[in-house]
Design a protein that fits this description.
Blueprint lengths: L12 H14 L2 E3 L2 E8 L11 E4 L4 E5 L4 H19 L9 H18 L1 H11 L12 E4 L2 E7 L2 H7 L3 E4 L4 E4 L5 H20 L7 H18 L1 H11 L4 H18 L1
Parallel strand pairs: 2-4, 6-8
Antiparallel strand pairs: 1-2, 3-4, 5-6, 7-8
Length: about 260
């Protein structure tokens, strides 16, 4: 009898968004000096009825409207996180430049991943069901509607310009200092990618703050959704190994040493 070929199907976005929602409603969220819980409210109890999500920092809450579809919930939650990141990074002044917003968002999202790895991973999976942790630096990206490339910056160029990375908007190329690793590499990569996102969606020094945040949130949904390998690589650079995984690794090493004696 012939056996049916085994294959793996990525979980559906609706299921992964449901898992994200359940986790967000169960666990607290930490960012900057804040510890917040996620709560759902009926539309008539939301601080601003027309919004799908609001921040209530006075009571330590991220409020999401009840009855949203999975795609609406994911978008509303992402928009709330972007506003929270900028608030925690103190980048809410009206004359924030595009560079301020870029640094705030890149460093804030990286902090989010470091302090809330389970929630961040669930968020990335809801955005892109095909995301997997990866140790391989991405070489190609989809930024907005265009293809971008990622390459190593020559050491001489990094030294001469005194930069860790740069986004070449004309060539649609991200260049990274080869000396970077770990958290610093993750932050610089996302920083340059956000410069590209801003360029593609029209965020400039003159863009009103609320408009900039909304465009950033939608661009991030598209960026992580369209670049699962880059999303998994970025997360792997930031997320510390769990205590259980570390203990298991130490156990394997100890057993190997004992067997070698």
């Amino acid at each position: 009898m012939m056996r049916a070929k085994e294959f793996t199907v990525a979980p559906h976005r609706i299921l992964l968004t449901a898992q994200l929602r359940a986790l967000a409603l169960y666990e607290s969220l930490e960012l900057g000096p804040y510890t917040l819980v996620v709560r759902e409210l009926p539309a008539d109890e939301m601080p601003v009825r027309r919004r799908h999500a609001c921040l209530d920092l006075t009571h330590g809450r991220v409020l999401v409207r009840e009855g949203l579809t999975p795609s609406q919930w994911l978008r509303a939650f992402t928009h709330a996180l972007v506003r929270l990141v900028h608030y925690a990074q103190a980048a809410l002044i009206h004359d924030s430049t595009e560079e301020h917003l870029t640094h705030s968002l890149a460093s804030g999202l990286s902090q989010l991943a470091r302090r809330n790895p389970r929630l961040t991973w669930a968020l990335l999976r809801a955005m892109s069901p095909n995301v997997r942790r990866s140790a391989r630096t991405p070489q190609r990206l989809v930024v907005g509607a265009n293809g971008w490339t990622v390459r190593t910056m020559p050491v001489k160029t990094a030294t001469r310009l005194r930069v860790f990375g740069q986004a070449d908007l004309e060539r649609r190329r991200i260049e990274l200092d080869p000396a970077l690793s770990g958290t610093q590499l993750a932050v610089i990569f996302l920083h340059e990618a956000i410069h590209g996102l801003h360029h593609e969606v029209g965020v400039t020094d003159q863009t009103p703050l609320r408009t900039a945040h909304a465009r950033e949130a939608d661009a991030l949904l598209q960026f992580f959704g369209g670049n699962p390998q880059a999303a998994g690589w970025w997360f792997a650079l930031l997320a510390p190994r769990s205590d259980a995984a570390a203990a298991e690794a130490l156990g394997v090493i100890a057993r190997r040493r004992q067997a070698a004696r």
